[in-house]
Specification:
Layout lengths: L2 E5 L25 H11 L3 E5 L5 H13 L3 E6 L8 H9 L4 E4 L18 H9 L3 E4 L6 H10 L4 E4 L12 H17 L3 E4 L2 H4 L6 H15 L4 E3 L12 H12 L4 H15 L6
Length: 280
Amino acid sequence: MRIDAHQHFWNPARGDYGWMPKDNPVLNRPYAPFDLAPHLARHGIDRTILIQAAATVEETEYMLGLADATPFVAGVVGWVDFERRDHLKVMERLARHSAFKGVRPMIQDIADDNWMLRADVAWGYDAVADLGLSFDALGFPRHLGNFLTILKRHPDMAVVVDHCMKPEIRSHSEQGFTQWAEGMARIAGETGAVCKFSALVTEAGADWTVEDLRPYADHVVSVFGPDRVMWGSDWPVCRLRASYEDWLAAARTLTASLGAAAEDEIYGGTAARFYRIAAA
């Protein structure tokens, strides 16, 4: 089973994608299952994980409806308001839907880097673990220390680091690489988190090459191991830098030397275990 562990659908007319630039023709347009299906068929990808893109419960419900109508969507990662303790009931309700796999607070967009450490949001991490759900950690390299703290405070919570924590590839900064690499190595070595091999092209420059991405891909696979790494397209966001085909081809080039067993993990096995996806 081949799995794309990170993709989005959206319709800007819904009005809850506050981050989306209105003048960006790549992002500011609807994306639906029929747009993605040809790419999946072309590359033999069987299932996907549909990830939230708006900080609203309503968008999560919209995605669950899409999952109900779309056989290739194996699961949905949604959103609940960690600042509202009464949203425990919302999380409990969503967890009863077979496609609901976990939650993703949009931490990268929160002005306070220490938001995730606040006592009033800690109930959310406990609820994720208690309900058998997962947590997608979305942030930047500056968040790595705080994520490490949260993961060690809540060792029973299943966590995946989204987008390799968005390293600053386009800056070509040796110091930036070192700080990111050390932070990722600590999360890999001191917690049970897994990592999404995704979005590296979006963090690179417009003229990116596979060799620009290689140090980051090699480090992630080295510290986590193939059985804790899962590939995701981040489609349609990846279209800011590359087509679905170009990013997948780059990823396959970067993992080609690992062997078939490792690639089976990165392109399916890890995601199937983490998101609890049964074979069709």
